[in-house]
C-alpha cells in the first residue's frame, strides 16, 4: 500500500510538473497571440491608409482626366479657328492637332490609371476586410488562450496541492508502516514469550501433579499403622520373641520404611 501510494504521489508530481510546463506554454502562446493581434491591428491601419491613398489618387486621376478633356476641347476649338484662318492658320492647326492628340492620350492614360486605382482600391478594401476578420479571429483566439491559461494554472495549482497532500499522506503511511512493523515484532516477541510461559506452566503443572499423587499414598497408609500395632501388645506378654516378630511386621518398625519411601519418591 505504501509503495502504491508512493507511485501515485510520483504520478501526481509528474502531472504537476507537466501542468506547470503547460501553463508556461499557454502563457507563451498568450503573449504570441497578443503580439499577433497587435501586428494585425497595425496591418489593418496600414491597409486603411492605403485605401485612403488610393481614393486620393483616384480623385487626382479624375482631375487629370478632366484636364485632358478640357485640353481636348481647347485643341478642337483651336483647330476650328486655324481652319478659319486659312493658309495663315495651317501651322497653328498642326499644333492644335498635336495638342488634341496629347490630350486624348492623357485622357486614355488617366482612364487606365483610374481603372487600375479602382481595382487596387477594391483589392485593398478586400484586404482590409480580411485583415479585420483575422484581427477578430486573433482576438477570439487570444480570449480562448487566456481562458486556457487560467484553466491550466488552476490545474497546476490543484496538482501541486494534491502532490503536497499526497506527500504528507505518504509520510504518514510510512510512519504507520514503521509502527505496524514494530507492533508485529512486539506481537512476535509476545507470542514467543507466551509460548515459553505456556511450556513452563505445563512443566510446573506436571511437576505439581506428580508431587500431589506420590504424597497422597503415604497419607492413606498412615492411619492404619497405629491400629495394627498397639492393640496387639497386651496379648503377647508371655512370648517375647513372637511379640518382637509381630511388632517388626506391623508396628513401629514399619513407619520408618514408609517415611524413607516417601522421601525417595519426593
UniProtKB/TrEMBL annotation:
Domain Methyl-accepting transducer: 1-198
UniProt region (Disordered), positions on chain: 219-266
Annotated Pfam families: MCPsignal
The entry's keywords: Chemotaxis, Transducer
BP term (GO), one: signal transduction
Organism domain of life: Bacteria
Bias (Low complexity): 219-237
SUPFAM superfamilies, sorted: Methyl-accepting chemotaxis protein (MCP) signaling domain
One Gene Ontology MF term: transmembrane signaling receptor activity
GO cellular component: membrane
Family: Belongs to the methyl-accepting chemotaxis (MCP) protein family.
Protein name in UniProt: Methyl-accepting chemotaxis protein
Native source organism of the sequence: Jiella endophytica
Amino acid at each position: 500500500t505504501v509503495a502504491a501510494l508512493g507511485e501515485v504521489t510520483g504520478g501526481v508530481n509528474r502531472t504537476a510538473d507537466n501542468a506547470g510546463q503547460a501553463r508556461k506554454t499557454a502563457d507563451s502562446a498568450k503573449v504570441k497571440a497578443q503580439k499577433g493581434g497587435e501586428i494585425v491591428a497595425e496591418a489593418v491601419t496600414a491597409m486603411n491608409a492605403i485605401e485612403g491613398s488610393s481614393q486620393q489618387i483616384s480623385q487626382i486621376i479624375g482631375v487629370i482626366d478632366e484636364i485632358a478633356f478640357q485640353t481636348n476641347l481647347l485643341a478642337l476649338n483651336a483647330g476650328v479657328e486655324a481652319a478659319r484662318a486659312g493658309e495663315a492658320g495651317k501651322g497653328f492647326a498642326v499644333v492644335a492637332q498635336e495638342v488634341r492628340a496629347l490630350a486624348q492620350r492623357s485622357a486614355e492614360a488617366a482612364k487606365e490609371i483610374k481603372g487600375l486605382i479602382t481595382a487596387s482600391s477594391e483589392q485593398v478594401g478586400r484586404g482590409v476586410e480580411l485583415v479585420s476578420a483575422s484581427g477578430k479571429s486573433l482576438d477570439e483566439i487570444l480570449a480562448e488562450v487566456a481562458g486556457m491559461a487560467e484553466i491550466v494554472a488552476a490545474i497546476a495549482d490543484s496538482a501541486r496541492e494534491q502532490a503536497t497532500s499526497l506527500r504528507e499522506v505518504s509520510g504518514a503511511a510510512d510512519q504507520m508502516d514503521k509502527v505496524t512493523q514494530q507492533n508485529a515484532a512486539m506481537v512476535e516477541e509476545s507470542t514467543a514469550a507466551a509460548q515459553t510461559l505456556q511450556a513452563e506452566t505445563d512443566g510446573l503443572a506436571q511437576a505439581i501433579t506428580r508431587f500431589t499423587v506420590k504424597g497422597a499414598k503415604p497419607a492413606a497408609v498412615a492411619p492404619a499403622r497405629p491400629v495394627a500395632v498397639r492393640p496387639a501388645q497386651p496379648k503377647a506378654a508371655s512370648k517375647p520373641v513372637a511379640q518382637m516378630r509381630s511388632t517388626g511386621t506391623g508396628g513401629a518398625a514399619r513407619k520408618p520404611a514408609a517415611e524413607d519411601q516417601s522421601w525417595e519418591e519426593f
